[in-house]
Design a protein that fits this description.
heterodimer; A: 314 residues; 13 helices; flat; B: 288 residues; mainly alpha; MetI-like fold; 12 helices; disordered N terminus
Chain lengths: 314, 288
């Protein structure tokens, strides 16, 4: 069992390494017209050369990678090219904002999806289950911006009860909450269906077991069967589902933050790409990719530990 | 066995329509394909033609869906953009699908150490977040049609390969495949003539899932301004252009977003019907 966890951790480490190579290759290895992007078309060859030297763009590629990775590991994320602010300072606030958004979404979506998933599993193929199944098929297929636009049209334009953008947001707690409602709702729609369906599937898997039939025959109530008999054994897969969707949340925030002009990591990433701000782009991309990998890894380990058959598989 | 077959053939089975939701899905997919093939010919106005002086003119008989931020006809632009959105998604999916299918079948057929190696590499590739990888690739390589297709193909290929491997593993353990191997058929021949015919149905479902995913990711990229670049337009970039109109309450951004949503829902309804078993496959295996 320990070897299994170690194996997954090793795989995770290799994945992170490959991810850092990809991020590096995708950005720094192809300088393109970074100098033009920063200095504009009018720049003299001298200023260009100075910039190339300052960024270390003249070193061989593999040296650049190790320099970059080394600095990154020491926590030195460099200066943002656009306004010479340390990347870490830009990250600080944005990271916090995205964390708040993700946390608020989790607080809403986890209990809700658990409740609906358990309800579906308690009455499988009943009227409620079938309608949730159809609705979730629709919800899963929709792009986030469609949900976002409809919410903005309804709540911000027609009823004007909530702000459509978050820019003016965070002066007070009340502002923060009002600014969070629509982004959180959009993200909730994006992952709720998936989580409900997977929770239901995990529960039904357990409820096929003979001991559930036994409980049924001895006359235990349905709620007792679901909550006391089945749920504890389905917890592992359910935690797996939650961790997987946390990973999804990381890339889901990009579009949602742009729709609502929410000052978080995702929006920062898009801005960095637009400005070709390499140090910023690398830092944000690597943080997001790493978080995603860690969550999927966690999901995988939990799934394996909670399933004896996987645990002892050779 | 022959008697059963004979009666089954003798009495024509009543022709049943697909379930209602699947019919809706088929109709949506058919309309989507027609728009992709004929859209630009059906459009009344050119893609860049200015119909109105003002931004966001209201819907009327002349402009059924209203106008966009430059006063162009939304319906005409929707028709002009359809081949881009749908063609690009189909192209990217096909690239990833063909590569993934080949790798998956190959590794399932050769097994052994090669299989272990390839599976390990696939595990690593699958654990990258697809949308972020696409964003990073575009940040570095710029956004052009070949880059978009290659990036999405790269995202799809390992995921398709894992499904193809799992499907092929079951088939390649069967006797008729064993017989083909005993005849001395080559790996390629076994893959093409023995495994593929039995794998068509599950792989068709996988293809549909991947097309939906392509449409959603490409539209998201265009929505972020990192996908299809002007003067070319797809539905995602139409949403982006007209976002400012949302606050005025105009539908110019809603229409293309709805078009994307209806199309992906339609495709998923068809897949759900082909894949059977009430959306289970879809919702549980839909990777984002």
């Amino acid at each position: 069992m320990a070897s299994l966890v170690l194996g997954r951790l090793l795989l995770g480490a290799v994945t992170l390494l490959v991810a850092s190579l990809l991020v590096f290759a995708g950005t720094q290895a192809l300088p393109g017209d970074v100098t033009t992007a920063i200095l504009g078309n009018e720049a003299t060859p001298e200023t260009r050369a100075a910039l190339v030297e300052r960024l270390g763009l003249d070193h061989p590629i593999h040296v650049q990678y190790f320099e970059w990775a080394g600095r990154f590991l020491r926590g030195d994320l460099g200066l943002s090219l656009v306004n010479d602010v340390p990347v870490s300072r830009l990250l600080d606030l944005r990271l916090k904002n995205t964390f708040i958004l993700a946390l608020a979404t989790i607080i809403v979506v986890v209990p809700l999806s658990l409740f609906l998933g358990l309800l579906c599993a308690a009455y499988p193929n009943g009227r409620l289950d079938s309608s949730i199944s159809v609705v979730s098929l629709f919800l899963i297929s929709l792009p986030e911006f469609l949900v976002g636009i409809i919410l903005v049209l309804l709540f911000a334009v027609y009823w004007s009860v909530l702000p459509a953008t978050s820019i003016s947001g965070f002066r007070s707690f009340e502002h923060l909450v009002r600014a969070l409602v629509l982004p959180v709702l959009t993200l909730t729609f994006a992952i709720l269906a998936h989580m409900v369906r997977m929770t239901r599937a995990a529960m039904l898997e357990v409820m096929r077991a003979p001991y559930i039939e036994m409980a049924l025959l001895k006359g235990a109530s349905r709620s007792r069967i679901v909550l006391r008999h089945a749920l504890p054994n389905a917890l592992g897969p359910i935690i797996n589902v939650i961790a997987l969707n946390l990973g999804y949340l990381i890339s889901g925030v990009v579009v949602v933050e742009v729709i609502f002009a929410y000052p978080g990591l995702g929006k920062l990433l898009v801005e960095a790409i637009g400005n070709r701000d390499l140090p910023l782009l690398q830092a944000v991309a690597l943080i997001m990719v790493a978080a995603y990998i860690v969550f999927t890894l966690l999901a995988d380990i939990v799934a394996r530990l909670s399933n004896p058959r996987l645990r002892f598989k050779q | 066995m022959s008697a059963g077959e004979a009666t089954a053939q003798a009495i024509p089975r009543p022709r049943r329509l697909p379930p209602p939701l699947a019919c809706i899905g088929l109709a949506i997919v058919a309309i989507g394909l027609i728009m992709a093939l004929l859209g630009p010919f059906l459009a009344r106005h050119g893609a860049g033609e200015l119909i109105s002086e003002r931004p966001f003119p209201a819907a009327s008989w002349a402009l059924p869906f209203g106008g966009d931020h430059l006063g162009r006809d939304v319906l005409s632009r929707l028709l002009h953009a359809a081949p881009v959105t749908i063609g690009l998604a189909l192209g990217a999916t096909t690239v990833g699908f063909v590569i993934g299918l080949t790798v998956g079948f190959f590794t399932a057929e050769v097994r052994g150490r090669t299989d272990t190696m390839i599976t390990w590499i696939l595990d690593i590739l699958v654990s990258f977040p697809p949308k972020l990888i696409a964003l990073i690739a575009i940040a570095g390589l710029g956004s052009s049609l070949p880059i978009l297709i290659a990036t999405l193909g790269f995202v799809h290929a390992p995921r398709v390969a894992r499904v193809a491997r799992a499907v092929a593993m079951n088939i390649s353990a069967m006797d008729f495949v064993e017989a083909a191997r005993a005849r001395g058929e080559s790996v390629l021949a076994v893959m093409v003539r023995e495994i593929w015919p039995s794998a068509r149905r599950p792989m068709a479902v996988e293809f549909g899932l991947r097309v939906t995913f392509s449409i959603l990711v490409l539209s998201s990229l265009s929505f972020l301004g990192l996908g299809v670049q002007p003067p070319m337009t797809d539905w995602g970039s139409m949403v982006r252009e007209n976002m400012s109109g949302i606050f005025l309450g105009t539908p110019a951004a809603l229409i293309p977003a709805l078009a994307i949503g209806i199309l992906t829902v339609g495709i998923n309804l068809v897949i759900d019907w082909i894949g059977g078993s009430s959306g289970r496959r879809l919702t549980e295996e839909l990777s984002r």
